[in-house]
Design a protein that fits this description.
Layout lengths: L7 H18 L7 E6 L3 E8 L33 H11 L3 E6 L5 E8 L2
Helix pairs in contact: 1-2
Length: 117
Amino acid sequence: MFIAKCDEDLILQVMNNLLANAIKFSNTNQDIIVSLNTNYNEIEIAVQDFGKGIDPLLHKSIFDKFFQAKNQTLRKPEGTGLGLAICKKIIDLHGGTISVESELDKGAKFIFSLPLQ
């Protein structure tokens, strides 16, 4: 059995944000994959979409407060640009990590890990 000590409400906030972003930046009728992996040290949760993707040059910046990638969609970006910064802060407070794997036109995969007890 694997147990991660965490604040359920805060981790739910992270999941809600990552899922909302995956839906917002995916094209209609595309799948979103949520996966969970464990090892002896951590639990890893990933949310993957198949939308426009994120330029690799922006991977570090997207976790900064108020950052919104330009030209992600033809419409004006929605939101404040705080969602991923909040996710990073929550995961940092839990002693975990959060990252992104993405290429333009190939979608994005956000991965966060939490240490196991």
